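Retro notes
What went well: the complex prediction finally ran end to end.
Inputs used:
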Amino acid sequence: MADTYEEEEYNAHFSGSTLRRILELLRPHWRWTLGFLLTVAATAGLDALFTYISAHIIDDGILARDRDALIRLMALYGGLQVVQAGLVFGFIYLVSMLGERIRYDLRKTLFNHIQDLSLAYFNQTPVGWMMARVTSDTERVGGMVTWGLLDIVWAIVNITSAAVFMFIINWRLALIVLIMVPILVVIAAQFRKKILVEFRAARKLNSRITAAFNENITGVRVVKALGREDENIGEFSLLTSQMYQASYRAAWLSALFLPVVQIISALALGAIIYYGGVQAHLGFITIGGIQAFVSYVTFMMWPVQDLARVYAELQHAIASAERIFSLSDAVPEVHDRPSAIDPGNLHGEIEFDHVDFYYEDKKPVLTDFSLRVQAGETIALVGPTGGGKTTIVNLLCRFFEPKSGVIRISGRDYTDLTLHAIQSRVGIVLQTPHLFSGTLRENIRYGRLDATDAEIEEAARLAGAHDFIVTLEKGYDQDVGEGGNLLSTGQKQLVSLARAVLAQPEIFIMDEATSSVDTLTEALIQKGMHTLMEGRTSFIIAHRLSTIKRADRILVIEAGRIAEMGTHAELLRQGGRYYHLYTQQFRRQLEEEYAI
Amino acid sequence: MSAFNHPLDLHEILPERRLLGLWRLMRGFRLTYLLATLTLAIASISKTATYLLLRYFADSVLDKNLLASSGMSEITRMLLLIALGFIGLAAVEGGFTYFSGRLAARTAESIAQRLRNYLFDHLQRLSFTYHSQTKTGDLVERVTSDVDALRRFFADQAIGVGRIVLLFVINFTALLNLDVGLALASVIVVPFIVITSVFFFKRVTKAYEAYQEQEAILTTTLQENLTGVRVVKAFARQDYERNKFERDNWEKYRRARKLNMMHSLFWPLSDLLCGAQMLGGFFLAGWLAIDGRISVGTYMAYVGLIVWLIWPMRNLGRLIVNTSTGLVSYGRVREVIRQEQEPLYDPTFQPPAEVRGQITFREVCFAYEEDESATLENITFDCQPGQVIALLGSTGSGKTTLVNLLPRFYDYTGGSITLDGRELRDYPRAFLRSQIGIVEQEPFLFSRSIGENIRYGVGREVPQAEVEAAAQAAAIHDMILTFPEGYETLVGERGVTLSGGQKQRVAIARTLLKNPRILILDDSTSSVDTETEAVIRQALEALMKDRTTFIIAHRIQSVMDADLILVMDKGRVVQMGKHADLLPQPGMYRQIYDIQTRIEAELEHEIRSAA
């Protein structure tokens, strides 16, 4: 579950270098950055200025009974408000677009980088983890460098300019207020952090609740069959009461936050009223001045609040950024050598020369594996799960490279070739076919992007997919749904075959599906496969007897070695592993074909 | 009703009218909510009082003549009292704001908790028919996101609207007390602000939905790329994928521009409206003050109060629009809640402690939907306690449907089924299901430990030794011991992934513990190798001993020893009898058997020709 990975722990300390790297993201867009920083600073300054003008309205206009001054000051106030509206428009637009742009940049960088990572990385990294990096982490970092930065600048400018005006009005009172600011910020920030922790706890429980719902719905047959309803709701209500505790706590802590900040600033307000009153009678401050102080103190709460929030969220943003950078810094294990070339084709002999391979240290998968395959030969790989069949295919496609030993194509070490040279000429049909959202046509075209509609149809015909496609309402333009979900497994197989046919690969690799499809589709798949195999060097991880029998050579792979090798007849005569495998398979397959 | 008693049967009380429904959801918490509103009112009054105190302060204490008449010490005494008054009012305001927030949170969280519990239980009591027609994702969405939207409605929006109304009413009343004309002049733009903000937020919501939609598309593109990485690499389509992602990514950026433009226009525009109103108010109040019609203190109080009158109005539009999402969620949740539950304990017939397992089918018919053609037609057969009934036939012949009638997952629509001589419909579902054990082809395991999975559904405390004995009989004990944490090892994503054969054996152990009188087995071993198959077969035999057993057979071997074989085709029983009876008859059974023999012959031939 994506959530679990997102919630992982992070370093509690601020990492300066990460912070610098986050700010670097703004460099390409420095004009926008500068623009929003200036507009927001001006807006914050104006806010403080408004209060100052209000003070003069009281002193110079009302108390002085000067109507001209009142009109003059009001006009100034109104004029500045129009200016501020323009500034507000400017900074909201700039900062939100900049934020979106940064997210866009980050997603693009990450996605492009992910395309280059080797399969080893994908095997070790859950899809959910990578998804969370590209989606929620980019969201958070984008928000921090824009809105977070904005809040900081706004708060600082606002407090500073208010401080300047306060000092102009009366420095003694200003000092009282300014002593309060850091105290408020520190308390508020600690408070915020605590609240954030509570919210995280609630969020974790929330994902557990979602998981419980999910499981009980998908497993509802078993729940009913075993009559577990009462126990399940008992367990679930424990979970929801935990959730209640956690979110109620988080909610009332947040409800406590503002009042606490408010009461602290009320202490400052009281001080101002007291000293301000005294000062007023001594003639050191005007009534307008006191009014200004009251306003400054009352509204000082907001920038303080913002600072506290940003400070609390900063840690999360840094943690997000660290995870983003860990993904974008990951070095692909398999990559092109500097002098790699494209030989133009992959015709010719394929040779595994004393190849060793393991995914994890000390757990060898292939050991001293050697094999020569003539151009055009069909090789069937059979044997138990985990024996190494898929690994052989993975190595051949150069999804992984041998840990030792060499794989040669036409006598040339294949690491001297570009990855594109190999992978664009190898066609693979996987056991569990993967289709992309979109139409059937788009999915088949994935095999060769410049193929015409006629060629697509031809490929579908060869693969045996055409017949079922034309029975669909929209034919080739039928939507296949997310991951091809709207099609049956057999149909997906046929489409993925058509895709491979269209690609006209020079080497063909197939991992035969074991999942049962109906006999008709089965026969179609067989036919499509044979069309593809004709005249091509082919490797089949084979389960079906017809495929196995048809192969030029059969390899029984066990524990990372070739246990037996030969033609069907030869191996049957030997009466060894293949003989057992075959008779067993044969019985079962025929039984299932006929009987049920 | 279930053993878990809901304080409130939502199924009964939730009406279609949405506001009424939201009101009913609050049952039991209305007083709390009322209290939340009252405390909020007190907090608002304190805030307003602060400005009235400020007025008194400016007019009375700062009076220039006061120094001459009362002296400095009297003034400082008054100042101290006023300063304490300010602090006191702030404390009252803060305290009551906090209480109000706390009460609102309690209401919202309690309503959400009750709703979650109800929905969870409700869902597991809905019929098979409902579940097979509904997509899991959609259902989960409704019971999580939509419930959360309702929670937010009670926590933020409902109280938020109350807050704005209170602020308006209280501050407006205060203004009226200061000066009626001034008060009336201060609310001229309020309707405009509300209209503008509703207008904008409707558009913002629309733009936001478009943006979210694109986000979903982008996420799908990303996910498909990541899960299909082998395909991408196999066809060397990295550049194509990059372009595709770039298109979707850019589209998201483009849609954000529209959304952001809305926001960027709304805020300054409403700033201007509010600003104009305030400026007009200041000017008028200033003029009145110069005329001496109001005091300076009144002017100062006015300047403070008008802020709390006008600014909250800006948020009213957002609240109103957000409220509409709460209403939509209510509709979606209610759709689930109004589904009828399948009663577990009706009817009230008290069955014996244990059934014997004598079952008769008489002319049993079944159709999934009323106007649909029958899935089962006129099924008639008898079965004695302890007998093995094998069902043979192609996919879709009705084998699974037939066995699903026994635990009353579906109720037969015609004919009669009796269990120990009593009509099956008279038995409570919960009782039947406690007497029937099911081992599916690919059993569903829960993401708990293996031990818990075996204990799952037994309905009593089971000592570890008994669990292990069951696992041993199911031939999975040794396998479990090889896992890092033995019986405590988690199953699924965060633990070990079990193969089909292993899952099946866990399910067998689970069923052994449950010790049902009637057994339903799906005899498929297609996904396991021969050795495992032999082991599973042995485990199954242990399980079937002394129980009435229904086997959905995929292989001729497993039907040969059955007491009764039902050969099914298109919802009917086409042949019935023991192996020895059926074999001589011409028909489907014979055909299948012939194939079996032919297989042996063919294999013989194959091997001979190879040699």
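What we learned: Chain A is about 65% helix and 10% strand.
What to try next: split runs per interface for comparison.
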